[in-house]
Amino acid sequence: MSGNLLRRVRVAEVERVANRIKRFRLVDADNAPLSEFSGGSHISVVMHAGDRLLRNPYSLMGAPSDTSSYQISVLNVEDSRGGSKFMHENVSVGTELEIGQPLNLFPPAKLAKKHVLVAGGIGITPFMSMMNELDGLHSDFELHYGVRSLEDGAYCKYLQSRYGSRVNIYRQDQGQLIPLERILGDQRLGTHMYVCGPKPMIDWSLQTAKLLGWPDENVHSEQFSAPPPGKQFLVKLARSGREVIVRGHQSILEALEENGVDAPFLCRGGACGQCETQVVACDGFIEHNDHFLTEPERVSGKKIMICMSRIQTGSITLDL
Amino acid sequence: MGLTFRNETFRDDFTYTNSPSNIRRFPFPFVEDQYRYSVNIEPHTPGPKGSPFEYHFDVDEHYVSEMRDRAMVLAADPLRCQALPHMMTAQWDMLELLMTSLARDYPEHFTLHRDGSAWHWINRPLGIDQKFTFLDASTLPYQPMEFIGRQVQGDFSIQDQRDNQLWMDAGIITSQADWSLDFDVGMNFFEWHGPVPLAHEAGVFERALKFLLNLQIGKPVRRLNWTMTINPRLDTSPENYHKWASDRMTVTPENVGKKVHLRVEMQGLFRLPRSNAILFSIRGYLMSFEQIVTVPKWGRRLPRVLASLPPELVEYKSLGRYRDMALAYLAPYDDGAPTSPGGGPD
């Protein structure tokens, strides 16, 4: 039941689209049609980076109806755990990779009267397919896209030429900031807001919406963050009696997989809830890094999302 | 293998029956002698050749007659087929999934030609030959869900996914076990399951919803559900309650074997790719007790299961009035011998 159907793909095109951002076009390794997908979907890309097995999520950017290829954009992150560096340095035209089926944890709300999209930097990627879908459905939307500079922001020209005045770009190097308070303060009822970008920007956007009285149901966010590193600790598996060491740069899930333990997962970003695992015992402090568990569930200490969360030190016994 | 389609009725004179060759492929839902409630969801992967699990959408000898009955229900009550406006993309998703599946799995009966958005669909058993433009509903005689829904056995509902919930926002439901699309349309997963006894307390629906919200493209799942129906009637809807509820009064010790039918639903759940909605297929199978007991294992097991039902379920499935008669009818077929695990015949 764990994991995701995998499909072999081949890199058909690589293009540098901005500072430290490359766009990859992927086709089925046997040239079979790929699955259609819905706006806001992502895929996970499996990477064998040296002796490490990584699966990073990347938003699909092309037209959802285009089954001939998928497109993703990858920012080369400075403190990368190896995934984005691998994509930038080891992947070129002709490289074969494995990907999961599209998964959508960031869909546009179909009943919204209007959609306000707020992107920061590489956070533009899920909105590429979302805008394509919304445009096709003649839905009302506007994009607010913050970039460091035009050299750092991907697809600025493309977006402006395709969607015209619905696209608003804010350049940090020119001192421009997204006037979120004004934007969110002046929307009609039934508008939904979506934000994707760095964590501080997401927190600021959610907070701004809350202060302006937006209902929680109308506010959506997506953030792909790598599992934060920490110190090495021990995981004991109650059912099999096995013990697995989680190294400082690994997630529990990655350590289990490295040791051949089949644990449930899907999004690997702490959002979908698939890897929720019962804690049998724990002598350390749990660092919950997911977006799934409720506050009371965290406080109870009885559940952990093993794709993202870890303990500071010591050992934890899981119902696996 | 070509199918021979039976010409039969599901109302009035009730000529429906299973051919001898069709009996053994009945999806008997009880995998052990004791009744036990479970969500029993499993991957909808291809089953044994000839079984109802062989393909995602099973076509059998009742196909043509069932589609005729559906057309009669829709003519009398168009509200059995409804789709909220935001479900159009999902309707096309459903049409594509059904057409591509049927054309692939039953090439002697169905053909689909696709050239970009120019599609050509041929349904030989029903004599349909339709050219249309994919994603342009004006090129079909019905909306996409109704067009294909009139050509596939079983009921269908489509669930929109939003706010970490599933919403029944479309469906074509003409052969239901006493629930109403017109009543349920627009409800969420917890609301439309409101009447089900026992399972809410057990947290079954919270777990099932969480599972379904993460249902993946290309990894459908299925489960079996069951109830009993008097006479082989497909349309046991609340809308027509006055027409069928009194049938329960007509069961006698003499006719119980002919009148009482085990009604099994093979329920499939499919993630639809373009809309991110979920298609729920409810494919019903009917078999009289008289035919069930021709399989010795089922004749032994069915009375044991019926005797072990909790009272809440006896009431929920409206079995109370005739359960004792059914048990008396079945008793001679249970010789006390052990039964093999699983639902299939020995």
From TrEMBL, chain A:
UniProt-listed InterPro entries: 2Fe-2S_ferredoxin-like_sf (IPR036010), 2Fe-2S_ferredoxin-type (IPR001041), 2Fe2S_fd_BS (IPR006058), Beta-grasp_dom_sf (IPR012675), DmmA-like_N (IPR054582), FAD-bd_FR_type (IPR017927), FNR_nucleotide-bd (IPR039261), MRET (IPR050415)
Ranges where the 2Fe-2S ferredoxin-type domain occurs: 233-320
Keywords: 2Fe-2S, Flavoprotein, FMN, Iron, Iron-sulfur, Metal-binding, Oxidoreductase
Single GO term (MF): metal ion binding
Signal sequence, start to end: none
Span of domain FAD-binding FR-type: 4-109
Family annotation (Pfam families): DmmA-like_N, Fer2
Record-linked SUPFAM superfamilies: 2Fe-2S ferredoxin-like, Ferredoxin reductase-like, C-terminal NADP-linked domain, Riboflavin synthase domain-like
Keyword Amino-acid biosynthesis in annotation: no
Cofactors named for this entry: FMN
Protein name: Ferredoxin-NADP reductase
Organism: Hyphomicrobium facile
UniProtKB/TrEMBL annotation, chain B:
Pfam families (alphabetical): HODM_asu-like
Entry-linked InterPro entries: HODM_asu-like (IPR021848)
Protein known as: DUF3445 domain-containing protein
